[in-house]
Amino acid sequence: MRSNKGFGLIEIVIASSIISMAVVSLSYVLVLSNRLSSRASDEIRANFIAEEGIEAIRFLRDKSWTTDLSVLVPNTDYFVILDTSTGQWSISTTEPGLLGDLFRRTIRVDSVYRDPSFDIVASGGTIDPETLRITSLVTWQYGTTSLETYLSNMFNN
Q1: CA 66 → CA 22, 91, 148, distances in Å?
Q2: I want to staple 153 with a disulfide (CB 3.0 to 4.6 A). Which of 27, 119, 130, 140 is the partner?
Q3: Residue-wise burial string across 27-46, b where 16 or more C-beta atoms lie within 10 A, e elsewhere
Q4: How many other C-beta atoms can be found within 10 angstroms of the C-beta atom of residue 126?
Q5: pLDDT value at position 4?
Q6: Bridge partners of 80?
Q7: Is residue 94 part of a domain?
């Protein structure tokens, strides 16, 4: 007769190791999916913050191009700030700090060049003082989001 002593113990050790590997793998998948979900949520929030920056500049354009936007220096970083007591936007070169303790929004204003047929060109044209290129850049720990638009003095204000 052969002795099968200890064979059951080996089966238990092997089964336990297989179950342990499965539990560890599932735990890793859950941690990884939680981290990816958090980063995706941060990216969505960053896109909304960048869009809010563009909308704030549109608000300032609608309020008064002459006093709010035409005085901005091209190739300079600005920050839009909402005064919660009045509900009014303002633009400043002083950084207000992080938004939501995570995001930093910067507004960049650039000159717009136009060719003789009045099309926008990257270089070689003449500066259009009634149009600005606005870039809203949001940075955070894991990435950067940027939105860009052109604004014109459409209300002649």
Answers
A1: 66, 14, 21
A2: 130
A3: eeeeeeeeeeeeeeebbebb
A4: 12
A5: 67
A6: 91
A7: yes
Residue type at 131?
T
Q: How far apart are CA 113 and CA 69, in angstroms?
A: 17
Domain that holds residue 134: 41-152
Structure tokens at 59: 């608000």
CA 114/CA 25 separation, integer angstroms = 58
Q: Is the pLDDT of residue 101 over 90?
A: yes
Question: How confident is the model over 65-90, as pLDDT tens digits?
Answer: 999 999 999 999 999 999 999 999 99
Number of domains making up the chain? 1
- Domain assignment present for residue 103? The answer is yes
* Residue 137 within any structural domain of the chain: yes
Task: Say how far apart CA 82 and CA 13 lie, in whole Å.
Answer: 63
Contact 56, 88 (CB under 8 A): no
